[in-house]
Task: structure prediction
Amino acid sequence: MSSRHKQKEKTRRAIIEAALYLLSQERSYSSLSLREVTRAAGIAPMSFYRHFEDMEELGLVLVDEAGVTLRQLMRKARQRIQKTGSVISTSVQTFMEFISDNPDVFRLLLRERTGTSAAFRKAVSREIQFFVVELADYIQQQQGYPEQAARIQAEAMVLLVFHAGAEALDCSRSEREALTEKAIMQLRFVARGADAFLGVSR
Result:
């Protein structure tokens, strides 16, 4: 990779990090301006267009990165499950760790899911559906459920976990721990209810 290309990638990364930093100040993405993002990144406003077509494209990149980061994290959770054997508790704890370490990324997913931009809403929905599909595949493989049943259970679980995550954003450590335990219990209810509904005995 040439030094010029490295510098371009470095600047692009600086723009992304600047936008995330501004979002950490309880801002919605739609309230950010190109000028303040470039100022936070330490570049001239016109330089922005060498990396992104407009602010919407930058926002879509942020959503995509958030989704990829989350999916990678949950894949690591499944690797941890192989050691601990506790599917639900390990998954929820890993998810809460992600929120604690990446609150701005999760806030972006939450806010833009119901934001004013149709493109953003569609992108966030797509990322969440990727997450649901991966979980459904895992449930189908591990529990032997039919495809549709695994998908329904996965959707219910993702909704519960995202709701718990939204609550956890502004909680103290002890409150987050309590939320984690509550989410684990709720997911166990869903899992056992699915087994009962499908007539599966374990």
Residues 190 and 196 are 10 Å apart (CA to CA). The two ends are 54 Å apart (CA to CA).
